[in-house]
Amino acid sequence: MKRLDRLMNAAADGVLAWSARHAEPADAPWIDALRGELELVDGGPARLLWALGSLSVVGTTRRSIVSRIWRSLPAALRFSLFGLALGVIGTISVVWSNVIVPSHESDDEYQGLYLVLYLGLLVYFAASGFVAARLGSSIRDASLTGLVTAVIGVGMVLVTFAVIDNVFLDVVMQQPDKAYGYAHSGLSSARDYVNQGMLMGFVTAIPLVAAVGAACGLAGGLLGQLVAVRRASVV
User: Fold this and answer.
1) Contact (Cβ atoms closer than 8 angstroms) between residue 220 and residue 125
2) Angle, helices 111-134/44-72, rounded to nearest 10 degrees
3) Are 173 and 179 in contact (CB under 8 A)?
4) How far is the C-alpha of 11 from the C-alpha of 48, rounded, in Å?
5) Does one domain contain both 94 and 16?
6) Rounded to a whole number, what is the largest CA-CA distance in the chain?
7) Are residues 124 and 95 in the same domain?
8) pLDDT tens track of the chain, all 235 residues?
9) Does the pTM of the predicted model rise above 0.70?
């Protein structure tokens, strides 16, 4: 038991030392006050909990710095940043799975994976609105962030598919689903078939993901503001 107390005391000292190094100069007296009162707290667990309170100062300071940086960015960049990140990841994934290591299996084999992917996108759209709200954006802007995130991210993926389908047509047409669809399409050109499909994808997908992205961004923004209100009430 005494050994555990010593470990927790050492951990409490370490937490306070780390907070002192990373806190803003204006917050240093507050950290020093916590350190000075630590000796009045009985028991290793209680001392560690007391010391952990210093982390809130560092967290608040850093979030304030990030928030100032966020608000200093051009509005267009704030709205599109999450979408660009998603689009880059999606583009790399599409190139990898369709050109570098192409799959010759039907999409039916990956239904479970696609479901996880779609759920992940919903969470990501909501997260973009949540982060935007936590960094000072309004609910309207959080919803708009989700919308733009969805449109840019999904749009970049669709454009990547369109380029690959035309540049690597021979590779693409080895996919069972595309080969079957082309054979039953009645079209005489495989290029016309893939481009017709991509056009329909753009027309139907973009409005849908825009609406879904806006709704998820709104939900994330509301959650972000709720977290901020509850945190403020605790403080």
Assistant:
1) yes
2) 90
3) yes
4) 7
5) no
6) 85
7) yes
8) 566 667 777 887 787 787 777 666 666 676 777 777 777 777 767 777 677 665 555 555 555 555 666 667 787 888 899 999 999 999 999 898 888 887 767 666 667 777 888 999 999 999 999 888 888 788 999 999 999 999 999 999 999 999 998 888 888 888 888 888 888 888 888 888 888 888 888 889 999 999 999 999 999 999 888 866 665 554 4
9) no
Residue 87 lies in domain: 75-234
**62, 83: one domain:** no
Same domain, 229 and 114: yes
CA angle 76, 77, 83 (to 5 degrees): 100
Structure tokens at 197: 């499909």
125 in Cβ contact with 146 (< 8 Å) = yes
Instruction: Give the whole-angstrom CA distance, residue 69 versus residue 146.
Output: 20
Does residue 93 contact residue 120 with C-beta atoms inside 8 Å?
Answer: no
Q: Which two tokens stand for residue 163?
A: 């380029």
> Residues 26, 89: one domain?
no
97-132 burial, b for 16+ CB within 10 Å, e for fewer?
A: ebeeeeeeeeeeeeeeeeeeeeeebbebbbbbbbbb
**Which residues make Cβ contacts (< 8 Å) with residue 146, sequence separation at least 6?**
125, 126, 128, 129, 213, 214, 215, 216, 217, 218, 220, 221
Same domain for 155 and 203?
yes
Residues 171 and 123 in one domain: yes
Residue that finishes a domain, picked among 37, 66, 95: 66
Asked if residue 177 and residue 84 are part of one domain, the reply reads: yes
